[in-house]
Specification:
Shape: elongated
Number of strands: 13
Distance between the termini: 79 Å
Strand order of the largest sheet: 2-1-3-4-5-12
Helix content: 40-55%
Order of helices and strands: HEHEHEHEEHEHEHHEHEEHEHEEH
């Protein structure tokens, strides 16, 4: 009887191990090694971010499904479709930061970790972590560069300046703008900087959908109404794509090129800086962000604590999202050769 019991127990153990080998742990591994990525497709910087993230994740043995979208509705559907497959993690850079509250309820219900990239997902407790570049540092860097270039601390001016900002649907756009404006505001008050249009509020200067074509009508109107007989010395541009369009309009109007900012470190911007057309950009190297994202993804799928360096500033309207904020890099004529190779 004892031998029979041992034999039966052995058979049961072998059967259990066989079942595990056929679908237990390997099934779990398959799920956790699948990563869904949903990015906007508004500028080439997102394509570069997607390529960098895919490459690094594949090197770590992950299966990556990267989707790009130009519309909110399409991206919402992409996120829904991705969550239906129950990936080990979903990574989202939202076209509209506040448009995923309902969609992400499925992520929370199915315990799929959510990581927001660059653009914080707003008004939801379904986001677990955030990875991006320090938006406050981006804005401050823009403002401080203009401050130094125009020698404002030492009384330079008066200079004419106009403002443009990013999309109202991007949670980072107002962060960039408000922190740049914070640096420049004292000089607007004391007259060293003059905004002849009077358009200095975010709602007045935001460019819908980050679409550079949407900036053309406004800069043309500004030229016609306020600078027919005056020089526009500086422009706060929220990214490189919009800076490129603004510079085209300056040339078309026969205006001298201004001191102009940019953001993203796009190749076209680097070439303009080299040619002396765009003054500077703030680079957000895709490989830097991708490396942080990969480490964060690995941690969440393995159930460990990812590296974070910010637990105070990333408020999404519901809670402070644990974040890793990378340091942006200013690129101008003094260091362009390092970036443009």
């Amino acid at each position: 009887m004892k031998l029979a019991k041992v034999f039966c127990a052995t058979l049961m153990l072998i059967f259990a191990l066989a079942l595990t080998g056929c679908g237990g742990s390997s099934s779990t591994d398959t799920v956790t090694k699948n990563v869904a990525v949903c990015f906007p497709n508004t500028t080439d910087s997102w394509q570069r971010n997607g390529d960098s993230l895919t490459k690094l994740l594949q090197e770590e043995g992950f299966v990556v499904d990267v989707q790009f979208s130009d519309t909110i509705e399409k991206q919402q559907q992409q996120v829904k479709d991705a969550l239906a497959k129950k990936p080990g993690c979903i990574v989202i850079a939202a076209i509209d930061s506040a448009a995923f509250v309902d969609v992400l309820e499925d992520a929370k219900k199915n315990k799929v970790p959510v990581i927001s990239v660059e653009r914080m997902l707003l008004n939801t407790d379904a986001v677990n972590y955030h990875a991006g570049f320090d938006g406050a540092a981006v804005g401050e860097g823009m403002g401080e560069y203009i401050e130094a270039a125009l020698n404002l601390k030492n009384g330079g001016g008066p200079y004419n300046i106009e403002f443009f900002a990013g999309s109202p649907t991007d949670s980072g756009a107002n962060v960039y703008f408000s922190n740049a404006k914070k640096i420049l505001e004292p000089y607007l008050r004391n007259g060293q900087l003059i905004c002849r249009s009077g358009q200095t509020n975010f709602d007045q200067v935001a460019v819908a959908d980050w679409n550079s074509a949407n900036a053309r009508p406004r800069i043309r109107e500004i030229f016609n109404r306020y600078y027919a007989d005056a020089t526009l010395n500086a422009v706060l541009s929220p990214n490189d794509d919009i800076a490129g369009v603004l510079l085209e309009e300056f040339r078309a109007a026969g205006k001298p090129l201004p001191l102009i900012s940019g953001l993203d470190g796009d190749l076209s911007a680097l070439e303009r800086i080299k040619a002396g057309q765009q003054t500077f950009t703030i680079a957000k190297p895709p490989e830097v962000l991708a490396a942080k994202c990969v480490r964060m993804i690995k941690s969440v799928v393995e159930g460990t604590q990812p590296d974070i360096n910010d637990v105070t500033s990333s408020d999404n309207g519901v809670f402070i999202v644990p974040s890793y904020l990378c340091t942006p890099q200013i690129v101008d004529s003094t260091n362009i050769d390092i970036y443009l190779k």
